From TrEMBL:
It comes from Blautia liquoris. This is GMP synthase (glutamine-hydrolyzing). InterPro entries: Class_I_gatase-like, GATASE, GMP_synth_C, GMPS_ATP_PPase_dom, NAD/GMP_synthase, Rossmann-like_a/b/a_fold. PROSITE patterns: GMPS_ATP_PPASE. The keyword Nucleotide-binding applies. The gene is guaA. Keywords: ATP-binding, Glutamine amidotransferase, GMP biosynthesis, Ligase, Nucleotide-binding, Purine biosynthesis.
């Protein structure tokens, strides 16, 4: 890596990512490492211009307050500490430094250059990927989500037809999503794309299954089988492309932080398949992944795609999935997305979607009694997905959405708006 970097050593802070992102916003690359990194490991890193010791509430490990190796204080680069009272640094802060003080440390004390940007990142990654992969082939499960799409675009730029993308349509995609994957990657980027329509296979396996966890397991396991079958048809695959991003690594835990969740990230990787991993986005936060996608020329709707659960619409068609309700979810979701985009809400609202419960209500449609399903709209905002608030959607927008759903979606006679924050509700219904 050619960019200057600021190293953040985790001594129990819960604000490591905030600090790393603050440095990156200055145009300087930063990354987080555990407190017990050695001087030798630090010296083996290129272009380290400064170190920040970041302490906090998790600084006690096995009954003892952790600290860095004393030799690190004499490693020859500027160093500050945040909320680490025993640190032997010239500058210490009780809380995260202000923008001005952080600028002074990064550019004044460390003499770092602001050379962290997506154009440089892509250029370096392309060069590195070509050197690493050579003339071998890479396999990538391309879901159409932001991470896999950006990985695909980056690998296409680096190695072209040596990348083999497999897109599995499990029948639970949103309206037009599989078609857009084929349009962008096969027709526009000329990717080596294998498209598998496994809709009937998945829906048959899910027939009569109402328990949410069982639905998720069936969808996940069946994806593994389909991906495995397609991978076995291919020759000469040496690498597996993976959409690991920096928060995945951070959330998997350090010595002073509890693991938030484990991330495997390999869409359908069978245990007996032996590949070397290629993870070109593992340095990036989510907003940086989107910026990378934009720089690579991916369309805006793909780069700014809504968060979408792995089981897709399967967990928004509540209870046992039926084809009529699945279609109602798909069509109502498309209307919601269309109207939110027209109203300028698509960038303001963190996540919005529709669900269709597995019960009917009495209503009137086409001047006759109807006994049909309801559509529930959910629109929430969140910073960390741990808590969420409800977006206050303009009444006229809601009326337009309601009118269109009732007019255009079959088997629906009622539309509701979910007013439940998280907690006590969760973001998804299942």
């Amino acid at each position: 890596m050619k960019e200057d970097r600021i190293i953040i050593l985790d001594l129990g802070s819960t604000k490591n990512t905030d600090l790393a992102r603050a440095v990156r916003k200055l145009g300087v690359y930063s990354e987080i490492h555990p407190f017990d990194i050695t001087v030798e490991e630090l010296k083996n890193m290129d272009h380290v211009r400064g170190i920040i010791l970041n302490g906090g509430e998790n600084r006690i490990v096995e009954g003892k307050a952790v600290d860095v190796d004393s030799a690190i204080y004499n490693c020859g680069v500027p160093m500050i500490s945040v909320d680490h009272p025993t640190a032997k640094c010239r500058q210490q802060f009780d809380e995260m430094p202000s923008d001005e003080k952080l600028k002074q440390f990064v550019f004044g004390d460390c003499k770092a250059e602001a050379n962290w940007n997506m154009r440089n990142f892509i250029s370096e990654q392309v060069e590195s990927l070509r050197e690493e992969i050579g003339d071998k082939k890479v396999l990538l499960a391309l879901s159409g989500g932001v991470d896999s799409s950006v990985v695909a675009a980056l690998l296409i730029k680096a190695i072209g037809q040596q990348l083999v993308c497999v897109h599995v349509n499990h029948g639970l995609m949103r309206k037009g999503e599989s078609e857009s994957v084929v349009e962008v990657f096969q027709k526009q980027l000329h990717a080596n794309l294998v498209y598998v329509d496994a809709s009937e296979r998945f829906l048959s396996k899910l027939e009569g299954v109402s328990d949410p966890e069982n639905k998720r397991k069936i969808i996940g396991n069946e994806f593994i089988r389909v991906f495995d079958e397609e991978a076995m048809k291919l020759d000469g695959i040496h690498y597996l492309g993976q959409g690991t991003i920096y928060p995945d690594i951070i959330e998997s835990g350090t010595k002073t932080a509890k693991m938030v969740k484990s991330h495997h990230n390999v869409g359908g990787l069978p245990k007996d398949m032996q590949f070397e991993l290629v993870e070109p986005l593992k340095q990036l936060f989510k907003d940086e992944v989107r910026a990378c996608g934009t720089e690579l020329g991916l369309p805006d709707y793909m780069v700014n795609r809504q968060p979408f659960p792995g089981p897709g619409l399967g967990v928004r068609c509540l209870g046992a999935i039926t084809r009529d309700r699945l279609e109602a979810v798909r069509e109502s979701d498309a209307i919601l997305r269309d109207e939110f985009e027209k109203a300028g809400l698509d960038r303001r609202v963190w996540q919005y979607f529709t669900v269709v419960p597995d019960f009917k209500s009495v209503g009137m449609k086409n001047h006759a009694r109807s006994f049909d399903y309801m559509v529930i709209i959910r629109a929430i905002n969140t910073v960390d997905a741990m808590t969420a608030t409800i977006e206050k959607v303009d009444w006229d927008v809601l009326e337009t959405i309601t009118s269109r759903i009732l007019d255009e979606v079959d088997n629906v006679n009622r539309v509701c708006f979910d007013m439940s924050p998280k907690p006590p509700a969760t973001i998804e219904f299942e």
